[in-house]
Amino acid sequence: MSLAHAILGMLQKQPMTGYELKTQCFDDSIAHFWQADQAQIYRTLDKLAEQGFVESRLEVQEDRPNRKVYSITDAGRAEVHRWLLTEQPLPTIREPFLVQLFFAGQLDNTQIIAMLEQQLKAHEQQLATYRAIPLPSFDNPNMTRELTFQRMTLEAGLSNEQACIDWLRDCIAHVKRM
Amino acid sequence: MSLAHAILGMLQKQPMTGYELKTQCFDDSIAHFWQADQAQIYRTLDKLAEQGFVESRLEVQEDRPNRKVYSITDAGRAEVHRWLLTEQPLPTIREPFLVQLFFAGQLDNTQIIAMLEQQLKAHEQQLATYRAIPLPSFDNPNMTRELTFQRMTLEAGLSNEQACIDWLRDCIAHVKRM
DNA sequence: ATCTTATATATGACTAAACATATATAAGAT
DNA sequence: ATCTTATATATGTTTAGTCATATATAAGAT
What is the predicted pLDDT for the residue at A99? Predict the structure, then answer.
């Protein structure tokens, strides 16, 4: 499961709590290719602990709730390495908007243009979010090997969103000519 | 749920069995934006029948198993129309390959190039599959209103795959220069 | 004074989807 | 002769993911 491996990958860099994984990793740096619910993160951490891939230690705090800090084990590191070399399947595609568009012929052109424009707006918003992610570009002097691959995943998101926006604009132009 | 509405949408054109929906719709004309398991199609048909959106009649066959032919009801048609005007959420993105690439820095460049090339091959294959889908292009004299919107959903798949392939080629070139 | 936000973990309940398998018959291939 | 493929429907089980909610405290906002 990719979620488990994403968590292991993040814990390889530094020990973290479930809360930090959620707020600092899944809501930020990897949100553009993997989204995860808080409940699922905690339950996956439990499962990883059972499997011996992570271990936790309780950090008592006085003014705030106690933290359960997870660190990766040697077995966990080995598991990440093994998994990195496995072939990943293409993601299953399920696009609610395309289901709508497929059957859109029975609507008025004005209604179709409205739905295309709403979708365009959402993707422009998404693109803006990706652009705001602070990752050095490939030619930046601060670029490291690690950040290079993180940047590549961001480039994937950027180019996908751009392609989607171009396609939506073409669709709108096409319907306006109908 | 989009699956239920995709089924209703297909049944609007003609009554069909679960088997036909699977083999002639979900494996063919809409496979590029919605994939569905046989078990899920049958169970969704049951649910749609309970809700009164479809009804079935048993067609007895002698040399083959009996068919259960589903047709859409007036309530089902109304439901499709209502749903066509609802705003669809952007699909949640979960790309196993990007999780790998994000953490790929710890592999050798040759290993990384191999995984990028494997992924490229898979997407080129996917693009070829999309190109083989027999839908008239926008300027084709046989183009109808209905097919125009089906063609648009295919164009979305084609441009997405192309963007993905371009991105993968850039990544490979980049790693080769590292 | 009261409400919201941030910090932090946990569980119950549910839905969507995936995977396996059962049943039944005929045609065609090895 | 035996195996596979096509036709056709159905169910059991499991996994992944979502949504709601519980608990607890402090800081900051209205």
Answer: 97
